[in-house]
Amino acid sequence: MAFSLLVxxxxxGLLVAIAIFALTLLFSxxxxxxxxxxxxxxxxLLRNIVKFYISIMRGTPLVLQLMVVYFGPYYLFRIPLGxxxxxxxxxxxxxxxxxxxxxxxxxxxxxxxxxxxxxxxxVLGYNKTQTFVRIIFPQVVRRILPAVTNEVITxxxxxxxxxxxxxxxxFTTAKAIAxxxxxxxxxxxxxxxxxxxxxxxxxxTEAVEKRLSYYQ
Amino acid sequence: xxxxxxxxxxxxxxxxxxxxxxSLEVNEGQVVAVIGPSGSGKSTLLRCAxxxxxxDSGELIYLGEKAATTGPEGKAVYAHPADLRxxxxxxxxxxxxxxxxPHFSVIKNVTDALITVQKKDREEALAxxxxxxxxxxxxxxxxxxPYQLSGGQQQRVSIARALAxxxxxxxxxxxxxxxxxxxxxxxxxxxxxxxxxxxxxxxxTHEMGFARDVADHVIFLNEGVIVExxxxxxxxxxxxxxxxxxxxxxxxx
Lengths: 216, 253
What we know:
The complex is a heterodimer. Chain A is an all-alpha fold. Chain A is about 80% helix and about 0% strand. Chain A has helices at about 5-40, 45-60, 60-75, 85-110, 115-125, 130-160, 170-180, 185-210. In chain A, helix 1 (about 5-40) runs antiparallel to helix 7. Chain A is flat. The model of chain A has no long low-confidence stretch (mean pLDDT about 90). Chain B is an alpha/beta fold. Chain B has two domains: about 1-90 and about 170-250, 3-Layer(aba) Sandwich (Rossmann fold); about 100-165, no CATH class. Helix content of chain B is about 35%, strand content about 25%. Chain B is built from nine helices and eleven strands. Chain B has a six-stranded mixed β-sheet with strand order 7-8-9-3-10-11, with helices on both faces. A five-stranded antiparallel β-sheet of chain B has the order 2-1-4-5-6. In chain B, helix 3 (about 105-115) crosses helix 4, helix 3 (about 105-115) packs parallel to helix 5 and helix 4 (about 120-135) packs across helix 5. The longest helix of chain B has 14 residues, at about 120-135. Chain B starts with a strand and ends with a helix. The model of chain B has no long low-confidence stretch (mean pLDDT about 95). At the A-B interface, helix 5 and helix 6 of A face strand 7 and helix 3 of B.
């Protein structure tokens, strides 16, 4: 296989990896906030259900979770889902998993806020929603950004786990070509692509961090 | 006109009674200083009056409107949420640690509640905010962030923020305690100016000289009860109660 064709094939895989990455963030960041609220709920039942959910998501391998999401509907309920479900299952699996991690990060950030901020807002007449949206959350975002950046960089590399259910992302492609040609080169090129992908992500998160560092 | 009436207020944390039946009245334009040793319940009294803590029993009345009364079972019953929201607007509070919003500029700290809570339009809020910052001598700090200001400047911003909402009564919780001694003067000056403008104020303070200077009524709180009260000259210079004497003696030296 010509080198240029290898690059094209892997670039196609990279696009799938980028799609998994972007969609996972799109769903897991807001979902994580909801999960964090559930985890901090005054309702005993809700709080403990959410706690259990987080412990499962963090306590079992993501690969295994992908398998369950992909094969579960058929094995458990005999719902036939076509080939295209692979990608959907990947997004569902990743989003549920990352939401759990993000939830704990949000929770840590929210709990780290000094009580005085809530009290000042209360005395000024802000209701609970206004207090959270205008006063608390913007400060939480700033506080949790380094931890979120860590997760986001891990996510870039975790997209390769989609190979477990044969989604045609970059690692799956690299593995197939390497096996067919008994050759290391596809892995090296894929490695370079992952590294470049993460460099862009690091650049973007650094820019966001800089933007938010207008106060101390 | 009575701005605030507190009747027989009681408040416990777990089994520890912090306020054991405190009654006081604040009339319009009056400046009341609350003094007493730490742990005497001063801060709790202020937090109860500003709705940051709920009272166990007693009455809390602002401008004749009952915010909380004692129900038939002897427990405090708060007013209907809509009424309570209105009554809360009569009350402003300046914190010991300022509690400014660090992610907002100075002007936004002062105007945001006007826009978000009182639904005033931006221009009107800005006009109110700028006027108050000018009054506080902070016109040139409008676009600064709190971390860029000295403690004294931050506390003046927080006073402006409280005044922006036009409270009927303004509470101060040890407004100079978090400041370096050389910065307390600027805050005292502002409070003195507000007193001259007949702003109704209740000030929890450790600054005896200041209590003597601006207050027209001094309350000495000890172990959750008012031990002695009256004009500053009487309470501070000629205390009758032994505890008041002992407390004031510590400030002599």
